[in-house]
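Hi everyone,

Forwarding the result from last night's run.
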Amino acid sequence: MARRGKLLAVVVAFVVVVAALPAIRYRRYAYAIAWHCRHWNYAEFSGHRVTLPLSWWEEKDTVRWEQYFLKRACPGAACLEPEIDVTRVVPSQELLIPASDQAEMDQREQAIARLNGRVHSTSPVALTASVLTIRTRSRTLFCEKIAMRNGKTVRNSFLDCGATRFPYTILSSSFGMPSREREIESILSTLV
């Protein structure tokens, strides 16, 4: 009888572990849905807002400085989810924010020219940099788009965006999938 009890306990423990694995694997999706139930589909920062798809949510870090993280759910315990980091520009740097779209574009193009000047053609991992323009209802975002390629495969893609008279820096990263990159660009295009 005691042996049956031990066997039953082992079977129950096994069933609980097997049932818990999907819950652990997809907990970020559950968190994102709960966040949307509470905040609707909008992440806000100082009068600006973006519309987030259902699998994205916002986290704030206003202790050190005004910083907002927009994160995407992904399965697994050690997954690399895409992220958008919106950080308020340090007040001493606000004077360096370009006052016109052309000045912002020139600043981005200069940064890209410096990066492209340092890229070595013999490297197995290639960096490609370009300017990406994202039009929103209220402004145009100018981004430095940097892609890390290994052969023909894009491993990581980074965006560093800013806009005229916009006191925030927007940094984003996506890992490997062009659809995630387009998803980040579509989120940024909803900026109001």
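The helical segments are 2-25, 27-39, 101-118, 178-188.

Cheers,
N.
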